[in-house]
Every structure is written in C-alpha cells, then in structure tokens.
C-alpha cells in the first residue's frame, strides 16, 4: 500500500510511504541494485547500516541462476539473501531484449535464449509475475515490452 505524505501543487510530484511485509519504505527512494541477490562488495548488514531498507533484484537473472525453485526451496529471496528489508524485483524484460541475441515476441509472451548457456525459455507476463511471487518479493514489476 502507498500513502501519500506530501504533494507538490506545481509539479504533481509526491512523497510518500510504501508499506510492505518487510517494513515501510519512504519515497522517493534509492534502491541499491542486487540483480543476482547480492549487492556487490557489500553484505546485507552493511547495506542496512548504510541506511537502505529496500534492495532491487532481477527476476531474469534469478530465473536463470540459481532458479526460482531453488530460491523458493531455500525459504524465499529474503532468507536466501539474509535480508530482512523490502525487496523490489524487476521483471527482467530489459535483460530478455538486451542480453538475448534471438528472441521471438508474440502476444502471449517472449521466447529467448539464455545468455549463460543458450537454452530456450518462454516467459509470459503472468509467469514473470508468478516467479516474482515465488521469490517472495515485496514489490513486483510487470513484464512489458
């Protein structure tokens, strides 16, 4: 849920607070990027000590490695990362288009090749959302083009 705290009458900009299962996040907010479930060179404790309470992870990277099922079996993304703050997951749509040399786009979804091993994968907007739910993300981004 989002609560607007302050609105600018001239620009329509607003500041607010996102309420998640893993704590409240004041907006606007800068999220450290942990695409592959880690913020490079920092532990979760160090990220928290720097004042951050939300990390951005990437569905595409986690889907390919270590895999959604693996993260789910290990207790979800929060436990996997040893992170008790909020997690926003990006759908991975940008990576599908930028990292995959050959894609097939249809109204149903997208077929792409893994940049890791060349294997073929089919993802729909619905499956991308389901994967992010299985990861246990607090905020989920929809797959679009």
Briefly say what this structure is:
By secondary structure, this protein is an alpha/beta fold. Helices cover 28% and strands 28% of the residues.
Q: Can you walk through the features of this model?
A:
With 145 residues, the chain is of the alpha/beta class. The chain has one domain (2-140): TIM Barrel. It has six helices and nine strands. It has helices spanning 44-49, 59-64, 68-73, 77-81, 93-99, 125-135; strands spanning 2-7, 14-20, 23-27, 54-58, 86-90, 103-105, 110-113, 120-123, 139-140. The strands form three sheets. It has a three-stranded antiparallel beta sheet, with no helix packed on it. Strands 4-5-9 form a three-stranded parallel beta sheet. A three-stranded antiparallel beta sheet has the order 6-7-8. Strand 1 and strand 2 (14-20) form a beta hairpin. The longest helix has 11 residues, at 125-135. The protein is globular, with a radius of gyration of 16 Å. It starts with a strand and ends in a 5-residue tail after the last strand. The relative contact order is 0.16. The model has no long low-confidence stretch (mean pLDDT 95).
């Amino acid at each position: 849920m989002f609560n607007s705290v302050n609105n600018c009458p001239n620009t329509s900009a607003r500041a607010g607070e996102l309420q998640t299962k893993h704590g409240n996040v004041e907006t606007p907010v800068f999220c450290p990027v942990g695409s592959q479930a880690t913020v490079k060179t920092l532990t979760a404790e160090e990220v928290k000590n720097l004042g951050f309470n939300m990390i951005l992870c990437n569905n595409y990277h986690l889907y390919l490695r270590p895999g959604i099922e693996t993260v789910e079996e290990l207790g979800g993304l929060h436990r996997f990362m040893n992170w008790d703050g909020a997690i926003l997951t990006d759908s991975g749509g940008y990576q599908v288009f930028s990292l995959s040399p050959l894609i097939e786009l249809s109204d149903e979804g997208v077929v792409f090749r893994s940049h890791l091993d060349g294997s073929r994968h089919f993802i729909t907007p619905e499956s991308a959302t389901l994967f992010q739910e299985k990861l246990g993300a607090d905020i989920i981004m929809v797959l679009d083009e």
